[in-house]
Structure formats: C-alpha cells, structure tokens
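note to self: the first set is below, dont mix up w the second
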Amino acid sequence: MLTHSELVDRVYEAAMLPELWPSVLADLSRFADGDGALLFTIDGGDFRYVASEGLDATVAEYVAAGWPARTDRAARLFERQHAGFLTDLDVYTPAEIEDEPVYRDFLRPHGLGWGAASAIVVPTGDCLIVDVERRHARGPVPPEAVARLDRLRPHLARAATLSARLRLQTLRGAAQALDTLGLPAVVLGGQGQILAMSEACGGLPPGLLTEGRRLVLGDAGADRLFALALDGLGHEDRPSVRSIPLPAGEGREPMILHVVPIRRAGADLFAAASSLAVITPLTRKAPPCPSVLEGLFDLTGAEARVARGIAACRTVEQIAGEFGLSRETVRSQLKAVLAKTGLSRQSELVGLLAAGTLPGVV
C-alpha cells in the first residue's frame, strides 16, 4: 500500500493525466481499506464517472438501471456541506438504510453497502464526489480510515480544481480554433450549459443566442427542438433533430444550428463537453441538393429528394409520378422530413429550403 505522501503525488499526477484516475482510485481504495473507489458528478440527468478496476462494471450497471435518479444518497451528502468524508451512517440512520431501496435492491445484492464519500465543488459549478466503497460483510468504514481520507481531501480538491481549469482551457482552445473557419460555435455541457464560445459568436444578431448557464435560442420553436436534441444525445436509440432551423428575423438571414455530439472518455469528468453547436448561415440561391439536405437534417436519400421537390414547389402527386412512387409513400416521407426539420407545415419547409443553401454549395 502507498504511503500518504506517495498517494498525494499520484493524485496530482492524475490531475494532469486523467487516464491515471482508475489506478489512483484503486490506490485510494486500498489506502482507506475499501474494496473500490470512484469519482462521479451528477448534473441533471447527466451522470459521469470513473471507477477503479473491479468496480467499474458494477457502476456501469448502476447507471444503466437509473439508480442515480432513484436515490438521495448523493443529495444528502451535498446537504451536509462537510469539508471531509462522511460515511453512510453519517447521512442515514440505521433504520433509513434498511428501508432505502439503493441499499436493499442494488448495493447489498452486489456485496456492497458501506462507503465513505466527500463532495467537492469545482470551478465549473459541478460537484464532484469522491466515494470509497466497502463490502457489506466487512462492516462500516472505520473512523481511522475516514481520518486518513480526510487528510487527503485538500489534495483531492486541489487536483480536481486543476483538472477543471486545464479542461476549460482546452475547450476554449477548441472553440477558438473554429474561428479560423469563421464559424460561430459553442461548446456545451450535458445540460446545454455553455463551456466555451468562438469569437465568431460575437458577430451574430442580438437575441439569437442567450448566454447563461444554458444556451437559449432566441426563437421559441427552435429552442424546443434544441432541448430535444440535447436530450437525444444521451439516448442513441431515440431519434432527435440534430440540425435546427433558425428562421429569418429582423436583420437576420435564416440559419441552421447543428448539434454535434462529442464522445468523451470515461475519465473526462471535469467540465466534460457533451456537444458542439455550430451555426451555418443560408444564402439566397437554389434549394440545396439532396446530399446537402441529408447532411443538414439527417434525412434519408428518399426523404431528401422529397424535400427538394417540395422546396421547388412540386406537389406530392408530381413527386410520386417522377420517382414512380405511390402518393402515400411520398406523404409518409414528407411527414418524416417535417419531423426531422422540426416544422409542422409544408409551407414552412418551402420557406426554409427555398431561402437558400450553405455558403459555397452550388
């Protein structure tokens, strides 16, 4: 087992190299006489974690079953606002533990059920929890182990702060890199919170984007689609609009906001980016070709052909005759196009697509 001094050095190494956290957590668990350790954050429905080897499969099952939203174990830890580690018996009475579903239905069936954890607030506003878990058969985490963890907590807090600041700087650099392309872009967290913006966003018309904890679009309909897109990022089996029309407004041409998912590493807890929102303006030219429409709105080839036909003011009957399809098939494809573009009427689709195409697209 590592000494206190050796473990402190390892913690600061992980602050600079996040891929080291699983092995450092294993060292931390042994230091506290535990059976596994993890770091995690909860932001709304977004649960991010990294765990020591041996505990990672259990935590993955815990997340997949939706337990983070089904227990107040973390919430009770937050409420105590204690600058140290607390055990389960510090935040629950023995009777409450017996009645709490997460202990009865998940932790104990997996051989766990005792732990010591500490909440640490990092500069991004996220609350990071360091949690050492112990097998239920071994009994509660002993006071001497909690004391050892308390001595480490200031170093864990500083390491978390350092990691968060380094990550934020990386995100700002990524957003600034997009300025070379002249694209307005916003790096977003899992709940749509703004982590970084490119300088090109400053040239957008007033009221289009609202900075705050969450990015808000100036158009109510577009903002509803944006919320659905964010929700869909965490559910790959759930279809969602990823390219959102921003209608023309006073002094503003129509635009498209693309929500691009960022697949992060499991150890990337600090200010982790969930998506990139990129805005592309439309110019007054012919309707986009099918391949462009496919890329813009995640349309199938058949749906893109129907969209282009509608944009050219052709009727459903004319499109059906041109491609040898039934009217019912074309209507079904048109319905899918409207759903994917977030529109409700055929006239809105004509207005959007007839307005133009992306810069440089002929």
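second set (the one i keep forgetting abt)
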Amino acid sequence: MKKIPCVMMRGGTSRGAFLLAEDLPEENVLRDDVLIRIMGSGNALEIDGIGGGNPLTSKVAIICRSNDSRADVDYLFAQVLVHEQRVDTTPNCGNMLSAVGAFAIEQGLIAATAPTTRVRIRNVNTNTYIEADVQTPQGIVEYDGAVKIDGVPGTSAPVALTFLNAAGSKTGRIFPTGNHRDCFDSVPVTCMDMATPVVIIPAEYLGKTGYELPEDLDADTKLLARIESIRLQAGLAMGLGDVTNMVIPKPILISSPQYSGAVNVRYFMPHSCHKALAITGAIAIASSCVIAGTVTQQVVSSEEYGNIKIEHPGGSLDVHLSNEGDDISAIRASVIRTARKIFSGEVYLPAQH
C-alpha cells in the first residue's frame, strides 16, 4: 500500500491529520481522493481511516513554505465530510490553525527562536494572514503548559493567534449583503464575513432558548430544515452562490448569556451543532457584538472593544478585539488556544475502489 508521512495533532477543540503539500498530488481531485481514503470518509465511523466519525475529527491541514513575503508558511484547510466522500476547502479552521505553527517548526519549515517563535501563516482558503506565537524554550516546541481551554481535558502550553485581516475573508466585505440585518423566512438575521462567513440567528425566532444541548438540537429535524433554508438563502444573498454542497456560511444561534459572558451561542458546522465553538466563528460573533445594527446587539448588553467572552456548550471562549481607527474592516482579533502532537508516522492508503 502507498504510504504518506502524517502527523496527527489536536488544534484547539479539533483534531486532524497534518500533511506536507509536497507529499500529496498537486491536482485537486487526486489530492482530495487521497484525503478521503486517509480519513475513511463515506462511513459513519470512518472505520477504514483515521477520521473520528465526527466533523471535528475529520479535518486535514496541508502545509508548505510560502512564496508570499508576508508569510512563512501556507496552510490549506480541508474539511473531509464524514458521511459523504467529499472534501470542502472553502472555509478556514481556526482550531486546526492552532497547531500549524508547531507543525511547521518541527518539520523544519521555519527556524525556532527562544523562548517563543512567531510563525506568519497565510490561510490559502481565505487568503488571510495570522500570526501564531508558539512556545519554544531552548528552540524546541513545548506542548506542556498551564493553559486550560474549554472543551479539551487537561492543560497545555498557550498558542497566541492574531488574525490580521479577517474582514471579508471570502467575500471581500464584512457585510456581504450590504445590510447589517436581513430577513429570510420571516426571521431577522445578520450575515457577516469576519474570519469566516456566518449567518447569525437569534434562537428565539426559531422557537429555541439557545441553551439546548447540541445532541437535542441535532435531533430536531424541523429545526435543522429551517436553519438550512435560511442558510441557503443567506449564501445566495452573500454572493457565495448555491451553498448546498459547501460548509459556509455557518449558521449560529444566539441568545442572552447565562453566566458572565457577552452572548451565548450554538454554532452549526453547518448541519450539526458544534460541542464547543470554532475560532473563526467566534471572531465573527465577537465582532457582531461591537458593531451597531446587528441582531446580536438585541441580546447582548453594551459591548466595547477588548475582551469578549462567548458562552458555548463546552464552556466559554475569549476573543480580544482591537481597532486603531473607526473603520470596522480594520478590526484585529486575538485568541489563546492550545495544541498537542498526538502521533507521527506514516498513514497507509487503501486501494481505490
């Protein structure tokens, strides 16, 4: 069987295969076929591959040196669908991004510096730039540390991510429809493109509190159908075209916070509810908290730039927003995540059927 060098890593609250671009076919169709076979896509358990049978564990990061002067490495994210033999490379994944810097250092794509190494990353999916500060005491990646993030057991070393140009990541505009509010199926929503395209929906308009467990929301087929109808219309209005076979825009149900956060959310991927929260989605949500006229401002108290705490099913996630001017497109977002190397070796490909 053909074998490919592979490192399995946890990045934030996601897990996936990290591969060098040079080890994969250049042609997209052939590349995606390899990813499908690596992960075992098309089977609910992904039993014949290394995917975990869940969108959060069926992900791939493809890394190479960048020829862009603003970046050290290029990162292409691939969402390998679990139940279908299909790969979607339209979105970014901020959680997987958490491990890109460490992988790049350990693969020799960038030299480490003590005590931290700043890795400049270009996300190829969205042509956005991110700075990752990785802990490298003695010039070696350090995974152990005292930072705890909700949704992940134990503690690890911090990875600081700063998104430099998240505004209009796919469409070129924070508000691709030209409006801060739209209405689909008589439901008021906000369509935003900040780190990733999303459609934000107050849960009450869909007859929900927003505090339901992810598994209960996933079991509500009528709710999922309503969300998908809104998502498809939002995709067209945002200029993304027919998004039936795309994972963007991501639908997000919002409600008032239950604890000390700014807002409570249920994030969909897009057809099942995330058990925690995607980083890119969190940046869009946090930004919607501080921009006037969004539906988010119906459920949040007055929020300003600085730290925005977002409550989700697994706990909470903090996003720090800054803006040196009045232009909302200049918003910069920073988050602290963690990452861990799980195994490295070679993954074997089954024969094509």
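remember for set 2: Residues 29 and 228 are 27 Å apart (CA to CA).
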